[in-house]
């Protein structure tokens, strides 16, 4: 991080030295400094949006926006930071202000729809997306369209939107997982399993897809763990999920056995599995 700042200081120093040597007036020197500051600020804005504490980024962009209220890039930065900080109520207000700005784009409207969905205001999100021209084709737009179609139980539309979204990204694991979960809720277990497996292939660390895969198998009475990459902790957690799925199907003894396996597998005390097993055994004793 020190190199860009060092270069900027050198450039600024060179500009000032040149002014002394050639008799450049103060206004021109100020313009040179201003150009350097814009470069540094752009780098800092990008850093604040990608690393560090999200709440610190919120504070940074709040100050910057207060000093430059007409700049949409700073307002966008604030809105994005609020989403990262999970301050969704504030984020939806910030994105609404971005959309109201004269320089707003269709991409900003997609971000507003995303914030509205996070705030559980699905109807408002649908209205925002419906107002965006169909020529605006992005991964995020179609992923949100698919989620809304899911909520409306418009399965054909949902499948179509999911398929388009998958084709518009180089990192499709999250949307494949969402699509699989949609299939799972419809009872289409075979397709759900296939989509979860595809999601894990693209992102072997995506635990939610592994857990959903276990739930899809458990719903069919298949209590064997899938052959996917997993840590010891993940294995214990998946056994726990499988055990609960077995109990839900009425296979209580199998479920208890899976919960015991989860307790033995976990490298530490697995409190959640212990409580579930104790509740099952207590229920058996009292009946």
Automatic annotation (TrEMBL):
Lineage: Bacteria, Pseudomonadati, Pseudomonadota, Alphaproteobacteria, Rhodobacterales
Species assigned in the record: Pseudoponticoccus marisrubri
Pfam families assigned to the protein according to its UniProt record, in alphabetical order: TPR_16 (PF13432), TPR_19 (PF14559)
Keywords for this protein: TPR repeat
SMART domains: TPR
Matching Gene3D superfamilies: Tetratricopeptide repeat domain
Ranges for the TPR repeats: 173-206
Secretion signal span: none
SUPFAM superfamilies for this protein: TPR-like (SSF48452)
UniProt protein name: Tetratrico peptide repeat group 5 domain-containing protein
């Amino acid at each position: 991080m020190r190199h860009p700042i060092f270069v900027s200081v050198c450039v600024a120093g060179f500009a000032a030295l040149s002014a002394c040597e050639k008799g450049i007036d103060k206004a021109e020197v100020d313009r040179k400094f201003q150009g350097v500051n814009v470069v540094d600020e752009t780098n800092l804005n990008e850093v604040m949006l990608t690393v560090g504490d999200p709440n610190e980024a919120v504070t940074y962009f709040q100050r910057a926006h207060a000093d430059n209220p007409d700049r949409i890039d700073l307002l966008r930065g604030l809105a994005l930071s609020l989403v990262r900080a999970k301050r969704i109520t504030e984020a939806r207000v910030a994105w609404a202000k971005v959309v109201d700005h004269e320089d707003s784009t269709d991409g900003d409207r997609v971000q507003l729809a995303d914030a509205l969905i996070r705030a559980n205001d699905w109807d408002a999100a649908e209205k925002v997306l419906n107002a965006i021209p169909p020529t605006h084709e992005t991964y995020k737009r179609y992923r949100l369209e698919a989620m809304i179609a899911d909520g409306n139980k418009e399965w054909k539309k949902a499948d179509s939107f999911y398929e388009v979204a998958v084709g518009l990204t180089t990192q499709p694991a999250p949307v494949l997982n969402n699509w699989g979960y949609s299939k799972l809720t419809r009872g289409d277990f075979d397709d759900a399993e296939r989509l979860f497996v595809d999601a894990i292939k693209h992102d072997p660390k995506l635990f939610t897809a592994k857990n959903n895969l276990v739930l899809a198998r458990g719903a069919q009475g298949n209590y064997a763990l899938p052959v996917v990459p997993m840590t010891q902790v993940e294995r214990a957690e998946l056994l726990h999920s499988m055990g609960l799925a077995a109990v839900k199907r009425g296979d209580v003894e199998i479920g208890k056995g899976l919960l015991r396996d989860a307790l033995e597998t976990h490298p530490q005390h697995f409190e959640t599995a212990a409580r579930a097993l104790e509740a099952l055994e207590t229920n058996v004793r009292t009946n």
